[in-house]
Automatic annotation (TrEMBL):
Entry-linked InterPro entries: Cell_div_FtsQ/DivIB_C (IPR005548), FtsQ (IPR026579), FtsQ_C_sf (IPR045335), POTRA (IPR034746), POTRA_FtsQ_type (IPR013685)
Superkingdom as given in the UniProt entry: Bacteria
Gene name in the database record: ftsQ
Entry's Gene Ontology BP terms: cell septum assembly; FtsZ-dependent cytokinesis
Identification of the protein by name: Cell division protein FtsQ
Purpose of the protein: Essential cell division protein. May link together the upstream cell division proteins, which are predominantly cytoplasmic, with the downstream cell division proteins, which are predominantly periplasmic. May control correct divisome assembly.
Similarity comment: Belongs to the FtsQ/DivIB family. FtsQ subfamily.
Domain POTRA: 58-131
Organism: Polynucleobacter aenigmaticus
Chief location of this protein within or outside the cell: membrane
Ranges that cross the membrane: 35-52
PANTHER family membership: CELL DIVISION PROTEIN FTSQ
Keywords in alphabetical order: Cell cycle, Cell division, Cell inner membrane, Cell membrane, Membrane, Transmembrane, Transmembrane helix
Quaternary structure note: Part of a complex composed of FtsB, FtsL and FtsQ.
C-alpha cells in the first residue's frame, strides 16, 4: 500500500506542475522563448531566400551548348536549340529541373546523350553527345538510322555528310543490337578476302545474310536454335578451307554462297545462273 500511495503522490505532483501556469517556471519560459525565437529567425531566413530566388536576376537567360570531348556538333543548330530551350524550360536557376532539361535535349534528333549543369547566376551548360551514323535501317528511303552502338535514331540519309559510307541494315525493330553484333562477326570473318560487309539483313525468323564489298552474297541461315553455338563459325572455316578449290574451278564467277548445309556449302555462278552443290566438305576431304 505504501508503494501505491507514493506512486499516486508522485503522479499528483507531476500533474500539478503541468497544470500550473508556465510563468511559474522561469527556466521553462526561457527555454520556450529561445526555441520560438530560433523558429522565427529560421522562418525569416527561409522567406528571404525564397524571395531572393524569385528575383529576375535568376531567370534563365543563357544556355551554352558544347560537344563532349572529342566531338564536334555537325547536325545540331545551336541558335535554334537555345531558343527552344529558353521557351520551354520552366523555372529559374534554383527551381529548374535538370533531369527534365536533359530528357528534352535527348528527345531531339541527332542527340544521343545530354549532360546539363547550372552556371551562376542564370545559365545552363549542356554537353551533347551527337549521334554517329553508321548505317541505314530499312533502306535509304527510311527515316531511321543506326549509330555506332547499334542503336536506332530518327534521321535521314540526306542529313549525313558525303564522306560517310553507310551500311545498309534490315531487321526487326528490337533487334538492332543483334544486327550490329552479327555485322562485327561477319566483318571479321571476311577480312582475309579484303572484303567488308555492305549489307546485312536479319529476317523475322532470325535468319541472316550479308552482301560483301566484292559483290558476293553470303547466306548464313539461323543458328541460334542449335546447341552448338560455334556452328556458323565452323561453316565459315570450312568455306575458307575449300575456297581455293572453288576458285580453281570457277575463278571469279561465284556471286553467292549458301552456308546453310550441314556437310558443305553451295555456290551460285553469276554467268551460268546455276546453283552448284558440288563443293561438299566431306567429299572434298575424302578426295585428298
Amino acid at each position: 500500500m505504501s508503494r501505491i500511495s507514493s506512486f499516486l503522490g508522485g503522479f499528483g505532483e507531476v500533474f500539478a506542475s503541468l497544470a500550473s501556469p508556465l510563468w511559474n517556471y522561469p527556466e521553462r519560459m526561457q527555454k520556450l522563448s529561445r526555441f520560438l525565437m530560433r523558429c522565427f529567425v529560421l522562418m525569416v531566413c527561409v522567406g528571404i531566400l525564397i524571395w531572393l530566388s524569385q528575383r529576375p536576376v535568376f531567370a534563365l537567360r543563357q544556355v551554352m551548348i558544347e560537344p563532349v570531348v572529342g566531338q564536334t556538333l555537325k547536325h545540331i543548330n545551336k541558335p535554334v536549340v537555345k531558343q527552344q530551350v529558353l521557351e520551354t524550360v520552366q523555372g529559374n536557376f534554383f527551381s529548374v529541373k535538370l533531369e527534365d532539361v536533359k530528357r528534352g535535349f535527348e528527345s531531339m534528333p541527332w542527340v544521343r546523350h545530354a549532360n546539363v549543369r547550372r552556371v551562376w547566376p542564370n545559365g545552363l551548360i549542356v554537353s551533347i553527345e551527337e549521334q554517329k551514323p553508321f548505317g541505314t535501317w530499312g533502306g535509304v528511303d527510311s527515316h531511321t538510322l543506326m549509330n555506332t552502338h547499334g542503336e536506332l535514331f530518327a534521321g535521314r540519309v540526306s542529313d549525313v555528310g558525303d564522306g560517310i559510307q553507310l551500311i545498309d541494315f534490315h531487321g526487326p525493330e528490337d533487334a538492332s543490337k543483334e544486327v550490329m553484333r552479327l555485322y562485327e562477326k561477319a566483318n571479321a570473318w571476311f577480312k582475309p578476302w579484303d572484303a567488308e560487309v555492305k549489307n546485312l539483313t536479319l529476317s523475322e525468323r532470325y535468319a541472316w545474310h550479308v552482301k560483301l564489298s566484292n559483290g558476293m552474297k553470303v547466306e548464313f541461315g539461323r543458328d541460334e536454335e542449335n546447341s552448338d553455338k560455334t556452328l556458323t563459325e565452323d561453316r565459315v572455316a570450312r568455306l575458307f578451307k575449300y575456297w581455293p578449290q572453288v576458285q580453281e574451278k570457277w575463278a571469279n564467277r561465284v556471286d553467292a554462297i549458301d552456308l546453310r548445309y550441314a556437310n558443305g556449302f553451295a555456290v551460285h555462278l553469276a554467268s551460268a545462273g546455276l546453283k552448284k552443290n558440288e563443293v561438299d566438305g566431306k567429299k572434298s576431304e575424302q578426295k585428298q
